[in-house]
Amino acid sequence: xxxxxxxxxxxxxxxxxxxxxxxxxxxxxxxxxxxxxxxxxxxxxxxxxxxxxxxxxxxxxxxxxxxxxxxxxxxxxxxxxxxxxxxxxxxxxxxxxxxxxxxxxxxxxxxxxxxxxxxxxxxxxxxxxxxxxxxxxxxxxxxxxxxxxx
Length: 150
What we know:
By secondary structure, the protein is of the alpha+beta class. 40% of the residues lie in helices and 21% in strands. It has one domain. A hairpin with a 7-residue loop joins β2 and β3. The protein is globular, with a radius of gyration of 15 Å. The model has no long low-confidence stretch (mean pLDDT 94).
């Protein structure tokens, strides 16, 4: 399928380092549409939607915020903490959206396996079905995310 000029411009921005170091696509050579479609298929195999995943991520973040940077029990299998910095991150899609520079870390208590996300990641997943490209600093593998937060 041919990409629209707007989609091509967005992909150029996502590949650049104008908004984040290394860009949102990292060294992934797939098109933006291919990345989103592949991740969407992974979610479908798990029987989940991007919105459900983002909702669970937001619930964990909201719980972890109460710990003021310390670990908070989420349930019998998980702990989470939130680290915050001054400033905000901007959504690269052409709409208004600023998000706190906040990173949530979730740890499985039995294995110490961790996964991290920013508030911007939650938005990108919920609104755009975008988990970032392979090799980007904040790429989240949908399968890993599902295995840790559900």
